[in-house]
Amino acid sequence: MFKCRATTPEAWHQFSQYNKDRAEAEMQASVTLREAIDATLAQTKNELEAQRVATEFAYRKRIHEFEQAEKELMWQEKNVRSKICAEFTIFCKFISRLCCV
Fold it and tell me: Three-state SS string across 31-52, please?
């Protein structure tokens, strides 16, 4: 069934050293991978934060522009109404003069 093989201490040492070297290489690869993942996560976090700040700035800017446009329109409406009232007053005076003549 099983063949019994004898292993020399030197062969055992070489095999053990090979396994140790492989394990250390895997551990180093794991550390390198973790560092790469951490760097990617940090970069992604920074990019998302930059996007959040830019979006928030653009939103606040748009709100300010909207408020300015609203104030401008309200000012224009007030002026137009004032001009209409002035013109209507002149028209009414003109009509009253025509009727009284």
Answer: HHHHHHHHHHHHHHHHHHHHHH
